[in-house]
Amino acid sequence: MATTIDYDCIIIGAGFAGLRALIETRRRGLSAKLIEAGSDVGGTWHWNRYPGARTDSESWVYCFSFDEDLLQDWVWPERYPDRSAMQRYLSHVADRFDLRRDIEFGTRVERAVRDDDTNTWTVECDAETTLRCTFLIPAVGPLSAAYEPPFPGLESFRGERYLTARWPEEEVDVSGKRVAVVGTGATGVQLIPQLAQTAGHLTVFQRTPNYVMPARNCPIDPAQDKAIKADYPAIWEQVRGQVFGFPMNPAGRVFSDVDENEARRVLERGWEIGGFRFLFETFDDLLVDQRCNDVASEFVRNKIRAIVRDRDTAELLAPKNHPLGSKRPPLGHYYYETYNRANVSLVDVSTDPIEQITETGLRLADGSVHDVDVLIFATGFDAATGALTAIDIRGSEGRSLREVWADGARTHLGIAVTGFPNMFMLGGPGFPFGNFPPTTEVAVEWAADAIEHLRESGHDVMEADVEAMDAWSRTLQEIVDATVLGQGEAVNTWFLGANVPGKAHVPLFYLGGIPGYFAELQDSVDRGYSGFTFSRTVGNKPESARV
Ligand code: NAP
Fold this sequence. Notes:
By secondary structure, the protein is of the alpha/beta class. It is built from 17 helices and 21 strands. It has helices at 16-27, 44-47, 68-73, 83-96, 186-196, 222-230, 232-241, 260-273, 277-280, 290-307, 311-317, 335-338, 386-389, 401-404, 436-456, 466-482, 514-526, and strands at 7-12, 32-35, 103-104, 109-115, 120-125, 130-138, 160-163, 178-182, 201-206, 213-214, 331-332, 344-348, 354-357, 361-364, 369-371, 374-377, 392-394, 431-432, 461-464, 509-510, 532-535. A seven-stranded mixed sheet has the order 3-2-1-6-5-4-17, covered by helices on one side. A five-stranded parallel sheet has the order 7-16-8-9-12. The protein is globular. The structure holds NADP nicotinamide-adenine-dinucleotide phosphate.
């Protein structure tokens, strides 16, 4: 008896990757359904509603590049769009390409089970919906499973408690209240200056200081908008050639090219321009040459000392035990300046960690107590794997992805896993870290090409080889070993799976650069999808999908 499938593809998640996958599968004549837990499109931009949320990538390249008319029509208001601008954009994309008719909102995928005999994935959702498909495309985001440390006493707290990545839709009013923020990563750094404006008193609990570079946000005026639009072909070429997918050319200079005074001038210029340009338009060897990194790290420490008036606070904010770039540096919007306000104080929890949440606040290891009305955790994510293992994904012979990854996640190209045929992850472990939308677009097109190739070749099953997965894992590790990443106290970074207790420590991202990653994808195609085995289902063939 033939097994009926409902769709060729089921896509999970309506963020950048999922929306793009829906567009591309349709273009290739595949039937597809997208399942989304949230009530609207947006992915990370739907859930991260905390005050101050905005991109750290420049707007005109933090978007889709595949449609020239979309690029030309859309007007970005600022250098870094805020969360509502991002939502407007993704909502516009959904409407413009009529995507909503194929999206099931408010539905969470709980299980996805592979059946090799019928070559199908059965996807079970919380709304008691069960759908069958041939290709499973999880696009659940690398930074979407929020992590809240399991502090003892958490539930006993009687005040208001929030997790930044699950911020409520209704406004949170902190005016006049005593507020605690735990966490000073990219999220905390955006949130803290916003809350400080109205909180009665804001106490920031910092475990590891970060090198926060000024974002220097500004409106985009019509002339600049016009110039960007006229230059898009060149801009996308830059993006695809830049290590983290940003519209920047190499600095064309290494540290040894300049003397001390010139080095200072170069860094000052980078600091004034702001954003990640400080890292990438100053010295091309900043992330690999120790001397260059030392000078740049000290430069940032001195900036902190110059901005923050209280000397003790400045010293606490200045990172000393990890090099610049060894953790993902946040971009600040008057972050350090915020510590000059009388209603803001900083508490170091590196040596005296938070030991207990009480009914009225936090107690640290030294016994000190901080009573607050509002407790906010900006404590990050179970990166790369968390959103995938939250779903009970079972591959061939019932093998669970959670179990397979228990000793460390491994993939081929960040897209496929041996034992999980016809599953194409977008943004899973081993995917490159960088400007996500343009990177994802290339991966989506690669996956769609692969499916087309599979069908044209008369096969219906595509699976990553274990040797290819091993080689990819070695590549990730070798790259980490060759850079400043994870050095010093940054060894605890989420890049390496080290921020969540009990999680296996392995590199979770490909850090060999976006061009390197694209070259790997292309190389696999050129060599006939090397690293993958194509086969035919024996047994019970599925009937074609309902379109
Ligand atoms: P994060 O970088 O992991 O920061 C989490 C913070 O919580 C860190 O300061 C961490 O300290 C602290 N923390 C965790 N557990 C703690 C504990 N038990 N006690 C005290 N402090 C604790 O997470 P994030 O700030 O959400 O950023 C994650 C990534 O998401 C970013 O790097 C970025 O890629 C992305 N993101 C992007 C944007 C943007 O583009 N605009 C905005 C937000 C986030 P330690 O450092 O000591 O671990």
